[in-house]
Design a protein that fits this description.
By secondary structure, this protein is an alpha+beta fold. 45% of the residues lie in helices and 23% in strands. The strands form two sheets. Strands 2-3-4 form a three-stranded antiparallel sheet, with helices on one face. The protein has a two-stranded antiparallel sheet with strand order 1-5.
């Protein structure tokens, strides 16, 4: 399961979303697609569930590309300590 740590707040904005770490003050703006992924994470969606939703939204994209792009984004969130698994 993917989730935001307790010290990270996700908030949707008109042009995307914000992830804010209340302990460190780190903030990250995410654009529309990344915002929708963050919304799914916030809603308790798993990696597989997110991939399934992305495949529905972007039927012309190869599954390997969607998976690679998602994993890159999730990796960036983990590196910045804005995402945990489990």
């Amino acid at each position: 399961m993917l989730r935001f740590p307790k010290n990270v707040v996700f908030r949707e904005e008109p042009d995307g979303g914000l992830l804010f770490n209340v302990d460190t003050g780190d903030m990250r703006f995410v654009e529309a697609l990344a915002c929708s992924i963050c919304r799914m994470i916030d809603g308790g969606c798993s990696r597989a569930g997110i991939l399934s939703e992305l495949a529905k939204r972007y039927p012309g994209q190869p599954a390997a590309t969607l998976e690679s792009d998602l994993d890159e984004f999730l990796g960036q969130l983990r590196e910045s300590r804005m995402l945990v698994s489990g």
